[in-house]
Amino acid sequence: VEEPTVPAESILVLAENEHVLVVQKPAGVPCHPQGKYQRSSLTEILKTSHLQLQDTSYLHPVNRLDRQTSGVVILAKSRKAYMALAQEHGLGMSKVYVARVHSTVDVAATQRWPQFVEEKQRENGQ
């Protein structure tokens, strides 16, 4: 079965120790095998290319991002590490989605959800 292609963008390793691997997931790559994406998932790509592990090796995302979302993903290297990190995740870790807009923004939308809008001005003051 042929899998859909995923972006050729490299997966940046941000931190690693014997229990955890922290990476920057590019957009277009699912976190774990699902549906049509079995070998073309973050966990499977990392198992073979970075960790050089067997298919049966343990590598499980503690936090997940949608396939089309880029961002930091924490992966546990053992079930024990996953359980400990998942517990921490539930006690105060949260996701923050940031979108860059290179255009004008609907002012009414920013007024409806001001807690989600951080305005940045260009260097020329606009």
- Provide the succession of SSEs: EEHEEHH
Class by alpha and beta content: alpha+beta
Content of β-strand: 15-25%
Shape: globular
- Biggest sheet statistics: 4 strands, antiparallel
Give the low-pLDDT segments: none
Strand order, sheet with most strands:
1-2-4-3
Q: How many distinct helices? A: 3
Tell me the distance between the termini. Answer: 51 Å
Helix content: 10-25%
Taking all residues together, what is the mean pLDDT?
81
**Total number of strands:** 4
The whole-angstrom Rg is 18 Å
Could you provide a short overview of the structure?
This protein is 21% helix and 15% strand. The protein has helices at 42-49, 79-90, 107-112, and strands at 12-16, 20-25, 60-61, 71-76.
Explained architecture:
The chain is of the alpha+beta class. 21% of the residues lie in helices and 15% in strands. It contains three helices and four strands. The N and C termini lie far apart (51 Å). The model has no long low-confidence stretch (mean pLDDT 81).
List the helices and strands and how they pair.
Blueprint: E1 12-16, E2 20-25, H1 42-49, E3 60-61, E4 71-76, H2 79-90, H3 107-112
Antiparallel strand pairs: 1-2, 2-4, 3-4
List keywords for this structure.
4 strands, 4-stranded antiparallel β-sheet, alpha+beta, single chain, 126 residues
